[in-house]
Design goal:
The protein is mainly alpha-helical. It has twelve helices and no strands. The N terminus is likely disordered.
């Protein structure tokens, strides 16, 4: 048979788009010739079949489904609900029960997903906050005690032969020495002497050398820390600060200045020696300890006067 009769007997193709079948094969046809292909047949288009196929592939949508929120907003709502004791999701549904390994284990704990614990015995949010009355003061956290500073200041200004309290000896406060060193530099600045570099450099060398010498002289059972050395030397510098304040008003290059300078060196050396010997338990070595300390305070007095 010819190509036309073969197509009509087979019926229409099941596809939405049909390819054309050439009219008249190579063996010739009713049109004759047999060497030229027939014009193409128009394709068949089924709109209903195309619409049904598209709906099947995409799937139906849920018109009642809520619009999903961004993860950041959802997480903020969950955390806020957990803190306020409201253990419901923003959508109004109860959160799913989390496995045991996700929970914190205690009352009021939260699991890894951020949901609050559904334990009804969990404490309220205000129980987690510290009371303001129980807060530690800032100066106490920094280790600054004005009572201890005042006791050491009185000890430096009034040398005594009485036994020194162990609380003063064991306290390595650095706030007082820093203030006294700055006051010494300020008093020299009022005399038009910018000696901050000299004070800093000589002070650091004095602390390091005193620390090395005292640990070499100390008995085997005792030692001293670098913080204690800085604290004792700084507090005992207070008579030199008083001398610098007097030098702002009076000229200390004469005999009066020499007498006041000798008194300040003696007072600073005596107090610092008592502190170091009490710390090291080396009363029999007090004169060996006093000698380098006297040289240190004598240098500070020379810087103050000249």
């Amino acid at each position: 048979r010819s190509g036309t009769s073969a197509v009509s007997s087979a019926g229409p193709a099941p596809m939405a788009f049909q390819a054309y079948v050439p009219q008249g094969g190579s063996g010739g046809g009713p049109q004759g010739g047999g060497h030229h292909a027939a014009p193409p047949r128009p394709t068949t288009f089924d709109p209903s079949q195309f619409q049904q196929t598209w709906v099947t592939e995409v799937g139906p949508t849920e018109p009642d489904a809520p619009t999903p929120e961004p993860p950041a907003v959802l997480g903020m709502r969950r955390n806020r609900s957990s803190l306020e004791g409201n253990y419901e999701t923003p959508g109004g549904r109860s959160p799913p029960k989390s496995p045991t390994f996700l929970s914190g284990g205690g009352s009021g704990s939260t699991n890894a997903r951020g949901w609050g614990s559904p334990n009804p015995n969990a404490p309220a949010h205000h129980d987690y906050l510290e009371d303001d009355d129980d807060a530690i003061p800032l100066l106490e956290e920094l280790g600054i005690s004005f009572a201890d500073i005042w006791r050491k200041t009185k000890l430096a200004l009034r040398p005594t032969l009485a036994e020194i309290d162990d609380g003063i000896v064991e306290d390595a406060d650095l706030a007082g020495p820093i203030v006294f060193v700055l006051c010494l530099g300020g008093m020299l600045l009022l005399q038009k002497k910018v000696h901050f570099g000299y004070i800093y450099g000589f002070g650091v060398c004095s602390c390091v050398s005193t620390y090395v010498v005292l640990n070499l002289m100390a008995p085997p059972q005792s030692s001293i820390e670098f913080a204690h050395v800085v604290s004792f030397l700084g507090y005992c510098l207070l008579p030199v600060v008083v001398l610098a304040a007097v030098a702002v008003v009076l000229d200390l290059t004469g005999p009066l200045g020499t007498a006041l300078a000798a008194m300040c060196v003696a007072a600073s050396t005596w107090t610092s020696t008592r502190l170091f010997e009490a710390k090291l338990r080396a009363r029999h070595q007090r004169y060996l300890i006093a000698y380098p300390l006297g040289l240190i305070y004598a240098c500070f007095v020379l810087i103050t006067i000249f």
